Structures are given as structure tokens and as C-alpha cells.
Amino acid sequence: MPQNPVQLKRSLSLPVITFYGLGTIVGAGIYVLIGKVAGLAGDKLAFAFVVAGIIAAFSALSYAEMASRFPRSAGEALYVEKAFGSARLARLVGWLVVLTGIVSAATIANGFTGYLALFLTMPAPLAITLLVLLLGGIAAWGIKQSALVVVAVTLAEIGGLLYVTSAGIGAPEARPIGVALALPLSGEIIGISLGAFLAFFAFIGFEDMVNLVEEVKNPRRVLPIAILLAITIAVLLYISVALVALYALPAEALAASDAPLAAIVEAAGYSAGPIAFVSLIAVVNGALVQIIMASRVIYGMARQGIAYARLGQVAEVTQTPLLATGLVTATVLGFALWLPLTTLAQLTSFIVLLVFALVNIGLVLIKRRGQGLDSAETEPPQFEVPMWVPVIGALLCAALLVFRLMF
Asked: Checking phi first, is residue 386 left (phi over 0); if not, alpha (psi -120 to 50) or beta?
């Protein structure tokens, strides 16, 4: 562990970390994926989001207990090391998490140019470069400043979803809501499951919250509450939007649209301009959150001795890991300029489901051993779940992975 007297600053309260997490979850996912999920699940779009939300919720409960047991950065890498006693496995999991953050941020940044073109003409490489450097600067500036930016954008994202919901209810060609609420037939199960696998991408993000644990006030109590609040609000928002989407437009029309939320608003007779703008800043928010998350994972791994030690150093002025943030920013920029945009959402879902399964299994092992405290800690966890929670969480993640491999 690097000998660095400067520590991360504990400045995040319950409301701030909750909205930070909610912004991480909402991000760009629901704004760009709902049409693609509709293409798989059809009229059972809402059921696909319900299934994905249930799978994510079990893992969120396990993460909440892990954060209360081990309130230190490095998140999944730390949990896996504590559970399995393997530094190699912890290092692998840590870098997988970093990779998903970097690739996600790069892809989001690349997608930024499509939204920007609706408002401003600029060469794509220049737009990507300016965006990534700006976000890297914000991430390096300070966690409180970064989190406040994320919170502000999150409020706009939530407002955008509420606007879509309100507008969609007034669509002139609305269909009976009973079509979307009717129990699925046996022939619709595969479509719902495939849709849930893709929709799962829109729920990931709560796991990023645990990597800010050393910057949260009273983390043993606050972080579990924030995780559960964030995932609950996201589930309710997503299901509401999915139901309104099918109320306003047929699933085929949603699937055919490159901007499905804008299509819902236009179907109701409103201008798509406001929701297009919110979609733009949602993309920016998603990239910023991923840069912060990846830099904190690297920082935590360095402090645990499973990454280059200097990456764990914290700048005295900003109280942020500048070297780790700079490395992530540079890598994101490189990927954003040259990475082909293909099956990112599904690739990310594969990796995250695998990591979630390991964390759930890890919690089972820790609870069976009765391990409650890190040797460096003096307080017991303030949030615990029954043993069946991580067991079901691991089984659900594994089942969705196997199902997707089969179909």
C-alpha cells in the first residue's frame, strides 16, 4: 500500500450519494435501450424490465451488506478477495470492472456525437476529445463537485422520464393498458427473457456506488440505504415508462425508432426538443460516472496492493486520485476514438452478471464463515440480509447467463 498521508474526503451525504447512484443507474440506459428491449419483448416490455429489476435487486441487497461489512474502496475486487482469499481472482475481477467502466464510458462518449448533431455541427473526433477531457477534468476536480454535477444531471434525467410519462398518457392513438399488463403466454417467455437480459444493462450502476464508500459520511449506515433507495426508484421509473411507452405506441414502432422516448413524446403531439436535450446530458452523465467509478476501483486496488502502488496516491489539493483518473481518462479517449460500436450492452451485461454472481457467492461464503469485519475495522456491519438473498441472487445471475448463451 502506498505511503500517502492524504486520504479521500468524506463529503457525500445520504441524498447526494443516493442521487449519484440513481444517476448512475438511469444514465443513458433507459434513454437508448427501451426501443431495443421492445423489439425483443414486444408487448411484454414492462415484464422484461420487471424481471431485470428483480435480478438486479437481489444483487443490490448483497452489495449493500458487503459495503456495510467492508467500507473501503475497490468494491468487487475487495469483496472477492475477502471471500475467496485469492489475490489473483480479486485482481481479475477488479480489472474486469474497470474495463466495463472504460468501455462503457468510451461508447457513451462516442454516442454523444449523434445527439450533439441535433443541436451543433462539429467533427466527431473533436467533439469526443473535448467531452472526454472535460469529464476527466470534472472527475479530477473533486468528488463533491463531481457528485453535485451528477446530482444536477440526475434531476434532469428524472424530470425527462416524468415528462415522457406525462406526455405519453395523452397520446391520441393510445391503446388499452391491459395489453401490456396481461400475463404473458408461454410463447412469450423467451422474448421476455431476452429482453430482460438487455434491459439488465439499464439497471447496472448501483455497484458503482460502493467504490465511493471512502467518500461517504457514515458509510456503514448511509451506503446500504442509498443503494436500496436508488434501485427502488429506478425500478419504479422504468416500469412506469415501459407501460406508458406501450400505451402510446406499438412495440414495433418503439423498436424501429432510434430515439424511442422522443417518438413517444411526438406521438402525443409534443415537441421532441426537450427530451432530446435531456437525452444528450444523460449521455454525458453516464460517461462521467463511469470515469469516476473506474478511477476509484483502480485507486482501491492499488491501496489493497493488487495494482501499481502510485495509482493509489491522492492529490492533496483535490483529494482525488489524480493519476488513476488521468489513466482512465486517457484510456477512455483512446477507446472512444477507435472502438467499434457493436454489442456493448450485451457484453457489459455478461461481465457484470458474472461479477454479480461472484459477489453473491462471496457473501454466502463470508456469512457461512461468520466473517463480519475487516481486520482494519472496529465496528460491526449495520446492514445484513438473510442467507437466501445472496443464494437467490447468484442463481438468478447464473440462470440469465446460461439462458442467454442458449438462445
From this structure: beta
